[in-house]
Design a protein that fits this description.
Organism: Fructilactobacillus sanfranciscensis (strain TMW 1.1304) (Lactobacillus sanfranciscensis)
Number of strands: 6
Protein name: Phosphoglycerate mutase
Order of helices and strands: EHHEHEHHHHEHEE
CATH architecture of one domain: 3-Layer(aba) Sandwich
Distance between the termini: 36 Å
CATH superfamily of one domain: Phosphoglycerate mutase-like
GO cellular component, one term: cytosol
GO molecular function: fructose-2,6-bisphosphate 2-phosphatase activity
Radius of gyration: 17 Å
Structural class: alpha/beta
Shape: globular
CATH topology of one domain: Rossmann fold
Number of helices: 8
Keywords: Hydrolase
Largest sheet: 6 strands, mixed
CATH class of one domain: Alpha Beta
């Protein structure tokens, strides 16, 4: 029987990008970090500088990798644990809506279901419904629905929890994306524990306790 460690997972959203400023969906598309995004990643790195991370993981999107690299520069522990970069930790794929205006996209996605804004969708339904609604609204039906999304992200979680080098009490870092972070919090927090209509800030830190297959969110968007 495989015995998994109990550890703290720090999940960081990448630094601000130009698409963030322009209010555009990025998903599997990408735009560079702004200077504010770079400076914010430095500050996040300083906040994490004294934490001994035994393992680090990162989405393979350039904005996440750049953020990880900047955080890396602030933390000497990274010298002995280079990040494992994987597409498992990517943002949701938005299909036809990649690069389009967020508000217009969420209207097209949620309005047929009586929820014309992202906040309405999250309040009335949840993150999984948001994914299913988007695939339904995508004229090419290429956007990831909840089943497709979690099939991918669960492989990433398995990659982390099955790390044989982790021991009880260790700290692990993951740099990922806004909606992926929201999806994790939506799935692994108590109902009403956090206001998920508030998106995680660029460079913010969310903490989770991982105990085998059990995950509990303890802090969100700090």
């Amino acid at each position: 029987m495989e015995i998994m460690a109990k550890f703290t997972l720090y999940v960081v959203r990448h630094g601000q990008t130009y698409f963030n400023i322009f209010n555009k969906l990025q998903g599997w598309s990408n735009s560079p970090l702004t200077q504010k995004g770079i400076d914010g990643a430095v500050e996040t790195g300083k906040r994490l500088a004294d934490i001994d991370f035994k393992a680090t993981y990162c989405s393979d999107m350039p904005r996440a990798c750049k953020t990880m690299s900047i955080i890396d520069d602030q933390n000497k522990a990274f010298n002995v644990c280079p990040p494992m970069v994987s597409p498992f930790f990517r943002e949701q794929f938005y299909g036809y809506f990649e690069g389009l205006n967020m508000d217009e996209t969420w209207y097209a996605t949620g309005a047929p279901h009586g929820a014309p804004t992202f906040k309405d969708i999250i309040t009335k339904y949840d993150m999984d419904h948001a994914k299913d609604f988007m695939k339904e609204a995508d004229p090419f039906h290429l956007a990831e629905n909840a089943e497709e999304y979690w099939k991918r992200v669960n492989q990433g979680l398995k990659l982390i929890t099955s790390n044989p080098n982790l021991e009880d009490g260790d700290n692990v870092l993951l740099v990922s994306h806004g909606n992926t972070l929201l999806s994790l919090v939506d799935r692994f927090s108590e109902p009403g524990q956090f206001d998920l209509s508030v998106r995680p800030a660029n460079g913010s830190i969310t903490k989770m306790i991982v105990d085998g297959d059990q995950i509990k969110v303890t802090e969100y968007n700090k």
